[in-house]
Write the structure tokens for this entry.
Amino acid sequence: MVGEPVNLNEFQELAREALPKMYYDFYAGGAEDQYTLEENMEAFRRIMIQPRILVDVSRIDLSTNVLGYNISAPILIAPTALHKLAHPEGEVVTARAAAACKTIMALSFTSSCTLEEVASSCNAVRFFQIYVYKRRDLSALLVQRAERNGYKALVLTADSPRVGRKEADIKNKMILPKLKNTERFLSLEASSDNGSNLAAFAKETKDASFCWKDIEWLSTITNMPILIKGLLTREDAIKAVKVGVAGIVVSNHGGRQLDYAPATITVLEEVVQAVGGRIPVFFDGGVRRGTDVFKALALGAQAVLIGRPVIYGLAAKGEYGVRQVIKMLKDELELTMALSGCPSVKDITRRHVRTERERLHSML
């Protein structure tokens, strides 16, 4: 591709050119038919923006607050695995970009860099993402290390008792490299009959019995607020409030887990209504434009998390690429707010969007 990218889709093309096919497929791929992966993005196209005119938008304020921390825009970096497959310095570079953009990075437990290395790389607010293992002592140790190193919240990924079937990884015989946060405790020598060890490793290590009652155990080993990531239904949102988590991330794991699960933007409002303002609701899945961020905010999200675009920026242009990805989204969001008559994030309301269901209903 010639010239500088002008949108996130062009960063994806640069990443495709820069990465070995195995690694690009690992990052970009989804489960099975990849219906949910594609629908995450397509569903945004079916939501229309309803602008308000003759509003003073001479100054636009993108800033917001997440769990008491002020950030420059309602755009966070989602936890994603193994950044060193995209760049030699891995998550340390991503963390520096997040700090420069004055936003929050959630570090994946499957990071290429240790949580200590990332914590010492720059002065910024960071969250730590975790799965719960069969060895609860290992999970507790990771949580304690995160808290000791200044991470401000725990993101519990709850939609992965097993790993989704990603056929590109099977065809490519994708093998996990060493996981720096757990290499002294967990072996990657998981047996597999399909050439990739991803699913076998997860099956041997993750605690598939972990359930709602175990959230209480997790809360007893940390003072960090707990966000639960992977909810898609009203029923689970109500349970999350009851067990006392500090927030929810509406997510289908980027279409990498259960194929034919709904696009996250189509269930966001259901979760928001179930929560009723008692805890904040965050969102990830398919965000590629500032208009997508705007639509998610209008449907009740406090902020969005972005995953693959960050990886694409990292692979294409390192720290500069990650900063540019975030800047593009911020610039597009600012323009969308101005053209929609919203001087600040709090001015974005439900009345600024119209869903496909509402349009079809109006035609009856």
The first helix runs from residue 8 to 18. The chain is about 40% helix and 10% strand.
